[in-house]
Every structure is written in C-alpha cells, then in structure tokens.
Amino acid sequence: MSKLKLAFQHLGRMEYQQAWDYQESLLQENVDIKKRNREKEIASSSEQMEQTKSHFLLCEHEPVFTLGKSGHIENLLVNNAYLQEKGITFFKTNRGGDITFHGLEQIVGYPILDLESLKPDLVWYMRNLEEIIIRTLAEYGLQCTRSAGETGVWLDVDIPHKARKICAMGVRTSRWITMHGFALNVNTDLSYFNMIVPCGIQHKQVTSIEKELGHTVAVAEVEAKIKHHFAEVFDVELVGQ
After folding, report:
1. For residue 148, what pLDDT is reported?
2. How far is residue 175's CA from residue 115's CA, in Å, rounded to a whole number?
C-alpha cells in the first residue's frame, strides 16, 4: 500500500496573520471536499469521490504572542503600549492551549492533515507530534520527554524547579482536518517568555536547543531532521521543498 503523500512547503519568515490565513484556506479547501463527498454519498451519486490534500508547512515568525481559545489574557504580563514599543504583535487564535511566543530562530510547524486518511484520533496525533520533536532532539543528545497532563516536549519533568519546556503545541481540527501545530525553540531569544506565563503553566521554565547545548545550531539543519522524523512517525511521504 502506497504511503499518503503530503505537500511540504517551507514558507520562510512570515507574519503570523498571513500564515494563519493560509492554514485556514487549506483547511477550508479540505472541509469543502469532505462536504461534497458527503453530498455524493447521500445522493448515491456515481461521481468519483475527491481526495483531500494534506500539507506540512514550516516557517518562522516575527515576534508575536498568541493566545489559545481557552487561554487566559492575564497570562500576558505586559500591556498593549509595551507590545507596540517592542514591536511585538498579539493574536487571539482558535487553537487549543493558552499563551505562547513565536519569534526568530524558532521553528514553527503547521501540519494540515486529514486524520481520517491516517487515524482519526486526536490524542494519537498529539503524541505523534511530540514524538517527532523528541526524536529530533535526541539527535543532539537531549533526552526529552512528555509531561503528564501537559502537551509539548520537556526536559527534566520529574525534577522540581528544573522542568523546562522546549517545544510548545496547540492545534485545531475541523472534520478531522488539523491546523496550527508546534513551535520548537532553536536559538530563540528566551527573554520574550518573561512577558508571559508560558502556556499558562506557573513555575516552569522555557528553554531552547541553544541554551541546552551552549551553542547555536543551524535552523535549517534542525528543520531537515524534523522533516525526516515527521515522515517516519506518520509513515507518510513529503513531496516538495
């Protein structure tokens, strides 16, 4: 059986709103396909069913704070005037999770997947996203893991006052089509996280590959490893550049 093919795109540095709009357009395209297929089923039509189109997008954002639909605005610790002064934008989004930061030297991944073509199980999907990052970071000698009851990828979760998150995650689904995804800190300026309660989690730190290793790492190198492990974990084929 041939593997599901995903269109891979590297979007480069892109404003958050532009990336969000693009994701929404890809998701809606797939939702529309599913609606048409459903109408054909109801009508017992002899028309051929359409195939949904899955995508994997990688990009980097200018400094921005994003708040999930169940998040709490009080986890943003600075006011609008301060954000404007520092050139930081802010968005309330339709993803899960609380508040997080996106910025330069951070890899943001947006899978637009039809889970019905893989496995219609959101918990399975989230654990797979975490597994991709865990395997990627293991190549740098970083032994990362999950934190019970919390999404994302962490280090030293069982050691009080040392637990720290290196990759945040938050997604949305509609008719089993996913959007939003993960944000992996590579050489990210971590001082931005002092302006928020990251992911709404008190008393836990945020880290980056650079901080853990003591030196910078080429973002393109990390992206290549993520692509490899994404294809491996989901057992799919990435097509495109």
Report:
1. 86
2. 9
Look up residue 15 and give its two tokens: 């404003």
Q: Report residue 58 as tokens.
A: 């990688």
pLDDT tens track for 105-138: 999 999 999 999 999 999 999 999 999 999 999 9
For 104, phi then psi, to 5°, come to: -65, 150
Element (H, E) at 10: strand 4-13
Can you list the domains of the chain with their CATH numbers?
7-40+52-239 (3.30.930.10)
H or E stretch covering 183: strand 177-185
Tell me which of 59, 144, 167, 199 is the catalytic residue: 199
Residue 149 backbone class (left: φ over 0; alpha: ψ -120 to 50; beta: rest): left
- Per the annotation, the verdict on 59 as an active-site residue is no
Which three-class secondary structure state does DSSP give residue 175? coil
CB neighbours (10 Å) of residue 209? 24
Q: Are 128 and 139 in contact (CB under 8 A)?
A: no
User: Mind spelling out the 3-state secondary structure of 197-224?
Assistant: CHHHCCCCEECCHHHHHCCCCCHHHHHH
Q: What angle do CA 154, 155, 158 make, to 5 degrees?
A: 100
End-to-end CA distance of the chain: 24
Report the C-alpha gap between 10 and 196 in whole angstroms: 28
| Structure tokens belonging to residue 199 | 């992911």
What mean pLDDT do residues 69-81 have? 87
